[in-house]
Structure formats: C-alpha cells, structure tokens
Amino acid sequence: xxxxxxxxxxxxxxxxxxxxxxxxxxxxxxxxxxxxxxxxxxxxxxxxxxxxxxxxxxxxxxxxxxxxxxxxxxxxxxxxxxxxxxxxxxxxxxxxxxxxxxxxxxxxxxxxxxxxxxxxxxxxxxxxxxxxxxxxxxxxxxxxxxxxxxxxxxxxxxxxxxxxxxxxxxxxxxxxxxxxxxxxxxxxxxxxxxxxxxxxxxxxxxxx
Length: 208
What we know:
The protein is an alpha+beta fold. The protein has helices at 21-34, 78-87, 127-136, 181-187, and strands spanning 4-12, 51-52, 62-72, 93-100, 110-118, 141-143, 150-152, 157-163, 166-172, 201-207. Strands 1, 2, 3, 4, 5, 8, 9 and 10 form an 8-stranded mixed beta sheet that branches. It has a two-stranded antiparallel ribbon with strand order 6-7.
C-alpha cells in the first residue's frame, strides 16, 4: 500500500478557539472521512489515525497559521486535497496550504511560535517601560502552579514588542517546555485581558 505524508497549514478562528485540542483532533478525523480522504492507521489493538499536531494550541487562543501532519492511505494531489478539505470545513476553520512530503522527510519540530494580542488604550501606560525592563534582564524566573522548580521566562522569550497598540511576542520552544503567552501577559500586568474580551492569537508556528 502506498502511503502519503502531507503537511497542512490552517487557521482556527472565531468560536472554534473554544474547541479543545482533543476535540479538534476528533473533528479533523471526521472531516477527512467526509471529504473522502482515507487516513492511514496505526498498528495494534486500538488503531488510531496517523495525524499529529507538532504543538497543540491552548484553549481560547485563535491560530492563524497552525500546523498538522497526516498520513493518507494512498497518494494524493495537494491542490485537490485542499479543495476537498475546504468544501467540508467547519465555520472558523480555513485550510491555507498542503505540502506533499517525500518519504524520507523528518517530522516537523517546532523552533518558535509567535503570538499577538491587541492592547486597549487605557492599558498601555507604562507598558513599553515594563517590556524594556523584561527584555533587558538576563533572567526572569517564574513559578508555575504545582511545580517545585522555577522556569526562566526570559530564556525562551525571543522577541517582545508593542507597535500600533498590538503586543507581539516570539517564544522559543526550549528544553524547559517553552514559555506560555499567558505567562508573559501576567508578567506584564496584563493577565486579565482575556477576561475583558481580548483574544490572543497565534500568528506563526516556525519549524526547523
């Protein structure tokens, strides 16, 4: 049987941001079935579709350039695959690109991710100064709940800027598990923004 690995980029927006990762995986599996795209299955007593997301998106965050890899049970054409997926996609789910991978291609490994969040005007006072102090520090240990050791937020914080009212952060996926965008917001005194109706958006998943 000829199998085909495909790397797919997609958007997850609107109310779909409230769908958790496991539910998204199940929804994707059903979508492929409706589109007539048979997925290759794993071996064993409980076979599962060969579908991976290199870095799951946290609940409540929109994603404008998400990444998944699937293995199909037969050969495919990338343009036809995109058309079939798009015609069966749920509201808030947009497929951007599909790349057919060579047989020896390695699985995607995430190097860094980018997030953006709009900052209301009344919350911008002093924010640039707090950003500068954080980026100028050599380390910034934070304590995660139910963890005995601290995490150095600064070590994996590659970029942090405020331009035209939009906060942009680029976070490296380091050995300590990577910094979370909500931890950066909390450090800047903006941990309550989402409670005020502001939405985080992941704008890029950069792979090696």
